[in-house]
Amino acid sequence: MKQLNFLLIFSFGLATVMFTLENTAATTVHFLPGLNATMPLAALLLVVGGIGATAAWVFAVWTGVVRKVEALQTQGEYEAQQVRIQELENDLHRYRATVDAQLALLPAAGETAAVQDSSLAS
Question: What one-character-per-residue DSSP string does 40-63 give?
Fold first, then answer.
C-alpha cells in the first residue's frame, strides 16, 4: 500500500511540474468585484492546490476529532450499561433468594396432594 501511495504522490507531483513548465503565461484572477491579481498559471495552480490540501487536512483532523468524541461517548454508554446489568443481576439474585425463602415456609406440595388423595379415597 505504501508503494501505491508513493506512486500516486510521485505521479501527481510530476504532473504538477510538467504543467508548471508548460503554463507560464500570466493569468488574471478575480477574487471579489474590484479585487484581482495577475500571476502565472502555474503559481495559481500551486496556490489553489495548497489551499485544497490544507482544506483536506483540516477536514481529516475534524473527522478524527469527531470519531474520538463519538468513541468516548460510546465507551461511557457501554460502561453505564454494564453497571445497569450488574444492578439487575443483583436484584435478580435478591428476588430469587426471597422467593426461595418464602417457598421454604410453605408446606410441601407433595404432602398436601397426598393428604387430599387420602381424604378423597375415604
Answer: EHHHHHHHHHHHHHHHHHHHHHHH
